[in-house]
């Protein structure tokens, strides 16, 4: 449980246009941080400076890569920035080495950004194995590994899931993949910026920019662990993938960048990259361990309150097994999310569930406002539609 009176780590006035009484939508996207907006505007204005402006923009890009490397404790050469996380996953799948009859293992909780690029390869003979959840909504590492065999060429896993909020122990997951002799491909879109991420056992890792990092849309982050995967060529290439575009043999040989910047196909959203760097620096200044303790505590309190009200919470109860997301079942999640928004509480709803996301801008009061709003909205909804209330034993 959280400490009484837990205060936000970042005050509301640090954000732009934040009018929600309780902003719990970060799992979809975080609110607009003023510091990020200023960095984007400053970098964009540099475009008017000609060659000097390009130097400013590229310097901001380098600084952002360095900040991300610092947050994840990885070498800066392992960090690449491109248009979005989905493009990174497509480049990985399209560049992966496999033969007809091989398989890739994903699970029921994976986002389409992770599994869709592999599904496209089915027509060429790649098997995509989907590990189902258990009846209690758990999906342990042992089930993931049990689906692997000697034809498995990759295990693709989200560190923190977007559906239930399930958080894997990265050491356990990484060691299990190593013991199975299967490369681990990781997505950290729901963990980067809110909990520590040890990427040492993952061959390739991908993250979005606009959720828990507090950054803008328009940037995909990729990490290439060259100790595990010494030579990887992405399945997408462009002029920024190359270390020198003016070599004499440029029409004969691809002069790949030696590090993860080879994933950067063309000119990226440099102003947005500068904004992401400002957001990452905000997290670094707070300290990732402090951010983790704050978010996990608030999420645990919200989950406990929902259970007390009789809702079916599908997020693991163990604080070590979740981050900032809390999900519970509701037959019309979109409708309930809209009802909560009318009360000033922003959450995500859909797919038969509702998800509330707790991060640095939230406090104890947000937990209380959320629980009160959910109770009020669901009672009204039940009366309008003849549905049983949670306290009457519904297992929605």
Plain-language structure description:
The protein is α/β, with parallel strands linked by helices and 396 residues long. It contains 10 helices and 14 strands. Helix content is 35%, strand content 14%. Strands 4-10-9-8-7-5-6 form a 7-stranded mixed beta sheet, sandwiched between helices. Strand 7, helix 6 and strand 8 (184-187) form a beta-alpha-beta unit. Helix 1 runs antiparallel to helix 7 and helix 2 (51-72) runs parallel beside helix 7. It is globular, with a radius of gyration of 22 Å. The two termini are 25 Å apart.
Salient structural properties:
alpha/beta, seven-stranded mixed sheet, 396 residues, Aspartate Aminotransferase, domain 2, single chain, Aspartate Aminotransferase, domain 1
Arrangement of strands in the largest sheet: 4-10-9-8-7-5-6
**Molecular shape:** globular
How is the quaternary structure best described? single chain
Domains, number: 2
Secondary-structure content class: alpha/beta
CATH architectural grouping of the largest domain: 3-Layer(aba) Sandwich
CATH topology of the largest domain, anyone?
Aspartate Aminotransferase, domain 2
Number of helices: 10
Q: Segments where pLDDT lies below 50 for 5+ residues?
A: 383-396
Sequence of secondary-structure elements:
EEEHHEHEHEHEHEEEHHEHEEEH
What percentage of amino acids are in beta strands? 5-15%
Overall mean pLDDT stands at 94
Largest sheet: 7 strands, mixed
CATH class of the largest domain reads Alpha Beta
By CATH, the superfamily of the largest domain comes out as Type I PLP-dependent aspartate aminotransferase-like (Major domain)
Radius of gyration over C-alpha positions, nearest whole angstrom:
22 Å
Give the terminus-to-terminus CA distance.
25 Å
């Amino acid at each position: 449980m959280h400490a009484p009176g837990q205060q936000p780590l970042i005050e509301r006035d640090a954000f732009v246009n934040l009018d929600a009484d309780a902003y719990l939508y970060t799992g979809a996207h975080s609110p607009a941080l003023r510091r990020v907006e200023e960095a984007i505007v400053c970098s964009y204005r540099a475009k008017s400076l000609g060659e000097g402006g390009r130097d400013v923009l590229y310097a901001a890009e380098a600084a952002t890569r360095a900040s991300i490397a610092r947050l994840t404790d990885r070498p800066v050469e392992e960090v690449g920035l491109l248009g979005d996380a989905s493009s990174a996953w497509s480049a990985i799948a399209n560049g992966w080495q496999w033969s007809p009859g091989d398989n890739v293992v994903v699970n029921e909780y994976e986002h389409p950004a992770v599994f869709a690029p592999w599904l496209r390869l089915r027509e060429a003979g790649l098997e995509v194995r989907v590990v189902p959840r258990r009846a209690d909504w758990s999906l342990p590492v042992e089930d993931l590994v049990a689906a692997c065999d000697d034809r498995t060429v990759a295990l693709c896993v989200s560190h923190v899931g977007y559906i239930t909020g399930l958080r894997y122990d990265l050491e356990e997951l990484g060691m299990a993949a190593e013991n199975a002799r299967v490369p681990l491909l990781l997505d950290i879109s729901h963990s980067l910026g809110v909990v520590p991420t040890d990427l040492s056992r993952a061959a390739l890792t991908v993250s979005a920019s606009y959720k828990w990092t507090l950054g803008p849309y328009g940037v995909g982050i990729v990490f290439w662990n060259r100790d595990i995967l010494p030579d990887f060529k992405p399945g997408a290439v462009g002029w920024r993938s190359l270390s020198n575009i003016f070599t004499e043999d440029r029409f004969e040989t691809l002069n790949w960048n030696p590090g993860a910047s080879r994933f950067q196909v063309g000119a990226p959203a440099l102003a947005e990259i500068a904004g992401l760097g400002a957001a990452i620096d905000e997290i670094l200044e707070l300290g990732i361990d402090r951010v983790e303790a704050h978010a996990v505590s608030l999420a645990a309190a919200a989950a406990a309150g929902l259970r007390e009200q009789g809702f079916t919470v599908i997020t693991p109860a163990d604080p070590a097994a979740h981050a900032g997301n809390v999900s519970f079942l509701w037959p019309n999640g979109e409708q309930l999310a809209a009802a909560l928004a009318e009360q000033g509480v922003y959450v995500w709803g859909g797919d038969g569930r509702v998800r509330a996301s707790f991060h640095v801008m939230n406090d104890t009061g947000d937990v209380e406002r959320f629980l009160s709003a959910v109770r009020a909205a669901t009672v009204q909804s039940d009366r309008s539609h003849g549905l049983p209330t949670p306290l009457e034993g519904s297992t929605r």
